[in-house]
Every structure is written in structure tokens, then in C-alpha cells.
Design a protein that fits this description.
alpha+beta; seven-stranded antiparallel sheet; 10 helices; disordered C terminus
Length: 243
């Protein structure tokens, strides 16, 4: 862990941000045009009623917003920005829904599970090959928590730097592990929308410790690419179901 933030100052900064209402959103449009007709008046009325009357506790617990970049495992050129809305279930496990934007028309494109180094070490060797490290994302400044004060973001990144993620949208995804892999145009466009500087964040995180990546993670870098595929082999499905 890096230098600990001053807790009273951190809490005060978070309180100030809450008073300003939600920030760091509604600036990235979905890049997918959905087929279908516009919502009818009846649908909008039903939505308004549902919004007012239905409890949505699981969604309300998605109180962490992270913005970063992924690529399709085995295809370094298949890069994209990923907006993560996450719930921290406990100190070792976080679950995220990933969208292609942060506006009202954002499309769900995947999920990510984030676990601590402690849990990662307990995984079977074959399972570890499906997970990616977060060291470079944090230290490079390319993973951000839009809208929260710098002190709070720094504290959050100190927690994330030693974690591991498994991501599907819907293919197995991977994370960048060194400079020069991520398309700089993606970074420039993201920084412009959020009014931030990835380079400045990198400098501000220099004091965050750089944990060694655990063996088995980021397996693609060793040529061990894992990927999903669709099969019409019913016997294989039945065999899996009876394990």
C-alpha cells in the first residue's frame, strides 16, 4: 500500500462531492444504435411508476464508478473503453456491470468480477489464466473513478492495485500490462470528456506500491490465450451438465 490518506480530509472531500450531486457522468454516449421503435407514452408512464414504486436495492448498491479500457483476449487491437458500475460485496470481492457509455442510453456490454490477491492465490491454476492484473491500469492512470476527489480516488486505487479481474463482454477480455499497448487516441478522447489528465494521475499515483503480479494472471502475455466459443455439440453440453 502507498502512503495513507488523511482520513478526516478524505471524508470531508467525499461529503463535498455528494453535496454537488452525481458528477463524472452523462458525457459519454453509447456507440451503438439500438434497433426498434421509440418508447411510447404508455411505456414512459409505466417506467415512471416503476421508478417510483419498485425497490432496486441491488442496483442502488452499485455505488462505485470506474472507467478504464479492455481488449479482447488474444486480440490486442480489439480495444474499447469500459464504464464499470460496481458493488463491493466484501473486502475481497467486487462485482461490476459494464456499459459502453454513461448516459441514459448506455448499453450493457459485460460484467467483471474483481477479487483480492488473497482470493486469487486460492484459485486453481487453470482458472487463474482467465484473470488479469490491475497493476498497470492503476499505476499508468488509465483506470479512473470519475467525479470523486483526488484524495478519495487515490485511496480507492491503493485498494485496486493488487486485485485481479475476470471480464466478459461477452468474450473473455484482458487488461493492458505495459505502456504502448493502449491506443492513445482512446485516452485522449476519454480525458477530454471527463476533463482529466491521465498523465497527471500517473504522477499522483507514483507513491502507490507496485505489487508483483501473481503467477497465472495475464496468461495471454505468455501465448496462453483463453477464449469462449459457441458449439453445437450437444454431447459436450450434456457431459458438462453431468459433472
Amino acid at each position: 500500500m502507498g502512503t495513507a490518506c488523511n482520513k478526516p480530509v478524505l471524508l470531508a472531500a467525499l461529503a463535498s462531492c455528494l453535496l454537488l450531486a452525481a458528477c463524472g457522468g452523462e458525457n459519454t454516449s453509447s456507440n451503438v444504435q439500438s434497433p426498434g421503435e421509440e418508447k411510447s407514452g404508455k411505456t414512459r408512464v409505466l417506467e415512471a411508476g416503476a421508478a417510483a414504486l419498485q425497490d432496486k436495492t441491488p442496483l442502488q448498491k452499485m455505488n462505485i464508478y470506474l472507467d478504464g479500457f479492455h481488449f479482447y483476449n488474444g486480440n490486442l487491437k480489439g480495444q474499447m473503453e469500459a464504464h464499470h458500475y460496481c458493488t463491493k460485496l466484501n473486502e475481497d470481492l467486487t462485482q461490476c456491470v459494464i456499459f459502453d457509455g454513461n448516459g441514459e442510453n448506455a448499453k450493457i456490454m459485460g460484467v467483471e468480477y474483481i477479487i483480492s490477491e488473497k482470493l486469487f492465490k486460492t484459485l486453481p491454476e487453470g482458472e487463474k489464466k482467465l484473470w488479469h492484473s490491475h497493476v498497470h491500469e492503476v499505476k499508468s492512470g488509465t483506470l479512473v473513478a470519475p467525479g470523486i476527489p483526488d484524495a478519495a480516488e487515490h485511496e480507492l486505487m491503493e485498494q485496486i492495485v493488487s486485485t485481479y479481474g475476470k471480464t466478459f463482454h461477452p468474450l473473455l477480455m484482458a487488461a493492458f500490462i505495459k505502456d504502448g499497448q493502449l491506443d492513445t487516441n482512446l485516452i485522449i478522447a476519454r480525458d477530454r470528456r471527463f476533463g482529466i489528465s491521465t498523465a497527471e494521475k500517473r504522477r499522483n499515483r507514483a507513491d502507490i506500491a507496485t505489487p508483483p503480479v501473481q503467477p497465472g494472471a495475464d496468461a495471454w502475455k505468455n501465448g496462453e490465450v483463453r477464449q469462449l466459443k459457441i458449439t453445437n455439440d450437444a454431447s459436450a453440453v450434456q457431459a458438462h451438465d453431468h459433472r
